[in-house]
Every structure is written in structure tokens, then in C-alpha cells.
Amino acid sequence: MNASSVTNNQSNPVATDPDIGDILAALLVALLIICTLITNCLVCVTFYLFKDLRTVCHYFVISLSAADILVAVVAMPFWCALQLTSMRWLFGESLRTFWNCMDILCGTASIMNLTAVSIDRHAAITEPFNYQSVMTSFRAISMIIFVWFYSIVVSGLRLAPWPTKTSYMHFVSATSFFIPLFIMIIMYTRIYLVARKQAHRMRNGRNYASDVKAAKTIAILIGLFVFCWGPFFAIVLSIAHDETVVVPHSLFNVIKWMVYCSSCLNPIIYSCLNRNYRRALRKLCQRVLKKREMVTETSSNTGVRPKARGSSFTVSTVDYDNNVGERNGGCRRNSLVLDSVTISDSQRVVETKW
Fold it and tell me: SS3 for the chain, per residue?
């Protein structure tokens, strides 16, 4: 979240010339900012343009993208500036306090939105035929509001008086990492067990492959989260137990970069690997390319506009994914984190694919 207790935290306003390593580190952070904005903005654009994606189950993904965009806009730029000053803060104490609080808010919001996604996917898998009544629009929006309120409270409490300097470190580690991680492990473990149980009811010879693929997907989700955030909170807890711990500048740079990387990877894992989002992105790219071709052809024909079919850039959702299959309150069951998993009951059998 912030580097105030971990790095060479000097408030000396005397700037030093950055070396080549600092410049490269700043360029990497700048590149990460651009990638994070592109991937998350694409998720928001496809959600806005394609009506088939405006469903309850995608509310959580949009909230996650909003949190990650906030990370790229508010938190990362200050970290990029720190790379050029050898971790010397040159912007005043008030702005540093603001950045620390916003860094905690953005990080907590991103993590809590990941937790909300896992809860929503758990409801979709364990209650596939009651999902519409279980996860209503009101409940989904209420969960999202709670996630952001929770994040604001956690970050705001940094300004409150604490018994010791390390008390808040323990608090934020528990509320922003370990509790969400515990919830996600429970949710995804139950998803796997339920999906495995249902898949074994089908005798199509694909049970083992489905189990392996589902397990790999869930392992990737949880493993990526722990990989990105685990080292950071390990350092936070180390300092909380021993304030004399000094983390090298270069090591903390790598760990902080991994934290920010999660904001770039989240839309890829939770959105772009979703079949509906892939189709929407492909259709959007086709529309853009077709529009560019028509503009080029028009300019080369001395102002005579060709009447080519499909030259309009209007994004139509009527022809998008007509064969969407069975839905739960507008939310497809195949927008899950599993691949080739079968959900069944005594009357109906529905195959869901990621």
C-alpha cells in the first residue's frame, strides 16, 4: 500500500539526479500504468457498448475495473515519481498522507472486489437455478457499495490514533489481505467441489479433464492473488514485529511492482478469459477496423463515399451472441471461472463453459 515504513523514506526536499536504474524503474511503472488503463478501460467500454454484458454478474467485474483504474490514476503516478528521486518524497507531508491513504483505499478496494467476484461466482455455481433470486441487482449493488465503504473506512483509519505505530499494520494486513484471502479460498474451494460433484454425474468421459481444468483455473486465480500481494504483506508484518527491519530499495521496488501488476492482470483473468468478453472485444475490434478501412477508401476516392454494407460504426447488440443459451436473470452461467463444468439436477442438465 505505501512505503513510508519500508523504504528509504526521506522527506529531504533536496533532489538527486536519478541513475539509469531509477529511470528504467520509472519507465516500467509508466508502462504498467498505460497497460492497466488500457485493459480496464476496454472492460468498461465493452460493458457499455454491448447490452448482453450489462448483467448482474458483470457489475462486480466493472467495480473491480474501476478500482484498478483508480490505482493507475491515483496511486501509481506517485510511485513512478518516487523512482526518479531515489524514494525521496518531494511533495510535502500533506500530499504524502493523501497518497498513503489513497494507496490503501485503492488496494483494499481492488482486493475486496476480487472477494466479491468470488462470492458471486460461488452463488452462480452452487445455486445455478436460483441465481436470479439469490443475486438480485439490489444485492449486487449493495455488495459493491459495502466494498467501497469498507475500503474507505480501512484507509481512513490510518489517520486515527493507534496504541502503537505497528497496530495499524496488523489491522490493515488482516482486513485487506488475510480475511479476503480466507473468503476467496473458501468460495473457490466450494466452487470446485460442487462443480466436480456435478460433473461426475455426467457419464461423457470428460469428467477427469473437466476436474483438472477447473482445478487449474482456481489455482491460477488464488495463486496469482497470493503471488502479487503476499510478499508485500509479508514485509508489512515483518516490520510490524520488528521495526528495525530494513528492506532494500530494489527489493521493495520489485514487490511494489508486483502489487500494481495485479491491477493490470485482473481484467485479463476475470474478463478477457470470459468467452462473452472475448466475443465482444473481437466484434468491437472488427467494427473499428472496418470503420478505418471505409475512411481510407473514402479518402482515396476523391470524396466519393462508397455505399458499402456495414460501413456504419454503430455497435449492434442484436447480432451479438444470439445463441447465448440459457440465462439466470440475464447472467449467463458460462461467465464462470470454470471450463467445461456440468451443472445438473433431476430435470435439467446445463453445461457451462468459461
Answer: CCCCCCCCCECCCCCCCCCHHHHHHHHHHHHHHHHHHHHHHHHHHHHHHCHHHCCHHHHHHHHHHHHHHHHHHHHHHHHHHHHCCCCECCCCHHHHHHHHHHHHHHHHHHHHHHHHHHHHHHHHHHCCCCHHHHCCHHHHHHHHHHHHHHHHHHHHHHHCCCCCCCHHHHHHHHHHHHHHHHHHHHHHHHHHHHHHHHHCCCCCCCHHHHHHHHHHHHHHHHHHHHHHHHHHHHHHHHHHHCCCCCCCHHHHHHHHHHHHHHHHHHHHHHHHCCHHHHHHHHHHHHHHHHHHHHHHHHHHCCCCCCCCCCCCCCCCCCCCCCCCCCEECCEECCCCCCCCEEEECCCCEEEECC
CA angle 145, 41, 37 (to 5 degrees): 100
Q: Would you say residue 47 has pLDDT above 60?
A: yes
Mean local confidence (pLDDT), 25-31:
92
The residues with which 343 forms a beta bridge, in sequence order, are 350
Which three three-digit cell numbers place residue 12?
529531504
Nearest partner of 337 among 118, 52, 109, judged by Cα:
118
Q: Tell me which residue of 45, 95, 35 sits closest to 68, measured CA to CA.
A: 35
| Separation of alpha carbons 283 and 326, rounded Å | 22
The region of weakest confidence among 138-142, 224-228, 241-245, 341-345 is 341-345
- Give the number of other Cβ atoms within 10 Å of residue 163's Cβ: 7
Spatial distance between the Cα atoms of 68 and 55, rounded to a whole number of angstroms: 20
- Using left for φ > 0, alpha for ψ between -120 and 50, and beta otherwise, residue 349 falls in beta
- In this predicted structure, the answer to whether residue 206 has a pLDDT above a threshold of 70 is no
Return the amino acid letter for 10: Q
Assign residue 171 a region: left if phi > 0, alpha if psi is -120 to 50, beta otherwise?
A: alpha
Q: Rounded to an integer, what distance in angstroms lies between the CA atom of residue 227 and that of residue 214?
A: 20
